[in-house]
Specification:
With 140 residues, this protein is of the alpha+beta class. The protein contains three helices and six strands; from the N terminus they run E-H-E-H-H-E-E-E-E. The strands form two sheets. The chain has a four-stranded mixed β-sheet, sandwiched between helices. Strands 5-6 form a two-stranded antiparallel sheet. The radius of gyration is 15 Å and the shape is elongated. The two termini are 26 Å apart. The mean pLDDT is 96.
């Protein structure tokens, strides 16, 4: 089964998500979306398949969100998508795609809901939070 992650290596949540995918024994396709952003159709499909609105897929922190006036609730999805395509940093991350579904993995352990394989070992996030126990089971 293929797994794809739209990854930002500078993001702790994205790094933790990638590490949990690998902890399941899966080597995913890693797309560093700041360098290789999805096209409009792919982005729309990811957002839709994750059950999100376009606005819910927008990242505010550390982006030009405010400067671009994207907090204006009257802006259409097309305008928001245009901004995300011009400024990929506005795409919240990480999105993960598997045959079991698509999720915006915030928090990172959301990825466990769509992985086809169980976790192989204990897993602790970068911040020290334990996520997977010695039996490969989710702690919370």
């Amino acid at each position: 089964m293929s797994v794809t992650i739209y990854h930002n290596p500078s993001c702790g949540t994205s790094r933790n998500t990638l590490a949990m995918i690998r902890n399941a024994g899966i080597e995913p396709t890693v797309i560093e979306y700041l360098d290789s952003p999805p096209d409009r159709r792919t982005l729309q499909a990811m957002i839709r398949d994750a059950g999100l609105s376009v606005r819910e897929a927008l990242r505010e922190k550390g982006t030009p969100y405010a400067e671009l006036g994207l907090d204006d609730l009257s802006l259409s999805d097309d305008v928001l998508l245009d901004a995300m395509l011009v400024h990929p940093i506005l795409i919240n991350r990480p999105f993960v795609i598997t045959e079991l579904g698509v999720r915006l993995c915030r928090p990172s352990e959301v990825v466990l809901d769509i992985l086809p394989s169980p976790q192989k070992e204990t897993f602790t996030k970068e911040d020290g939070e334990a996520v997977i126990d010695v039996d490969g089971r989710r702690i919370k």
